[in-house]
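ARCHIVE CARD
CATEGORY: sequence design from structure
SOURCE FIELD: tokenized fold
FIELD CONTENT:
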């Protein structure tokens, strides 16, 4: 009896590992701003156009950590360029942020005026289609 339970437990763990591995394998990594990075040199509101993002995809934000940051904010923080309560601030210069399902908002709050000058971005992440 104990052997059967052990076998079922091992089989369940293997199946779970395979499912999770497949899901991660299908996530795409996007470099924000392509070769320019997360800077005012490009229009961050234009960069996402024509791209399809899915929940679980990774956005890589490259920037000079001594002169910038990335802040994950809510809609109000995005609209007003303010760091709201519960906002998550990234400051490494090479930040990898996984997209949640639905609307995701990012701003820069390092130097005054960066966000208002266009260093902000909204990304909608769709539900990932079923594996085939």
């Amino acid at each position: 009896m104990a052997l059967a339970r052990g076998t079922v437990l091992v089989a369940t763990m293997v199946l779970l590992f395979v499912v999770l591995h497949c899901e991660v394998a299908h996530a795409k990594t996007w470099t924000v701003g392509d070769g320019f990075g997360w800077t005012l040199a490009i229009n961050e509101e234009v960069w996402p156009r024509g791209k399809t993002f899915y929940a679980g995809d990774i956005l890589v934000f490259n920037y000079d950590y001594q002169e910038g940051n990335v802040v994950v904010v809510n809609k109000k923080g995005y609209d007003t360029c303010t760091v709201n309560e519960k906002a998550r601030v990234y400051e490494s210069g090479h930040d990898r942020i996984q997209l949640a399902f639905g609307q995701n908002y990012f701003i820069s709050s390092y130097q005054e005026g960066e966000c208002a000058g266009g260093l902000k971005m909204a990304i909608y992440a769709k539900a990932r289609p079923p594996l085939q």
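CARD ANNOTATION: The radius of gyration is 19 Å. Residues 14-23 have pLDDT under 50 and may be disordered.
SHELF: design records, drawer C
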